[in-house]
Write a structure and sequence with these properties.
31% helix, 7-stranded mixed β-sheet, Rossmann fold, two-stranded antiparallel ribbon, alpha/beta
Length: 192
């Protein structure tokens, strides 16, 4: 199987600096090699417009993908709220051809966990506040099969305070449990 994604490298110029982003993301390439093309089940927390879910579907042999997103506002993230209806419509259109493999759960992640079976991977990109990320890691770690991959978005070591909660929660979890943490910014992953 080859990478199906045609967006292998996205480039953009920001303040005169050329930024290159690889597609599929490093964590997906890691899973591609780890799972050796076998059929896998996964969950994504925070689907938004569906780009990452599409990359997952394009590059992994998915049996079922649980897509968890309430598509409603968090009280402390007012800048994102007006686009939530539009983001859901875009995600559903983008993932339409995979409808037989996708299970949409329109709930907050803490409420959706009861509907998730044991899975091979979980990707976390929900609320970035420390307490929410910490809770998602704790709840969904228990939903991973042995050898499964817990991954997520927006781990940073820089000036982006919005992502401090992600960075702190992920590092604290890895250190407390003596787990190897892989980082290929903006993504991270841990193998159970």
């Amino acid at each position: 199987m080859k990478w199906v994604s045609l967006r292998r490298y996205l480039m953009r110029d920001v303040l005169g600096i050329l930024i290159r982003r690889e597609r599929p993301r490093a964590w997906i390439r890691f899973c591609f090699n780890k799972f050796e093309r076998r059929e896998v089940t996964g969950a994504e927390i925070g689907v938004c417009e569906g780009y990452n879910a599409r990359d997952i579907m394009d590059n992994l042999n998915i049996k079922e993908l649980y897509l968890i997103d309430p598509y409603e506002e968090y009280k402390d993230l007012n800048d994102l709220n007006p686009q939530m209806d539009w983001a859901e419509k875009k995600a559903r259109r983008m993932l339409y051809k995979y409808e037989h493999y996708c299970k949409w759960i329109k709930k907050y992640s803490a409420n959706a966990v009861k509907e998730i079976p044991m899975v091979d991977f979980v990707y976390i990109d929900g609320n970035h506040a420390y307490n929410f990320v910490k809770e998602d890691i704790k709840l969904y770690w228990n939903k991973l099969n042995e050898g499964g991959v817990l991954a997520g978005h927006d781990i940073e070591n820089g000036n982006c305070q919005e992502h401090d909660g992600v960075t702190k929660a992920v590092i604290n979890f890895a250190v407390a449990n003596k787990l190897k943490l892989y980082i290929h910014a903006p993504d991270w992953w841990i193998v159970k």
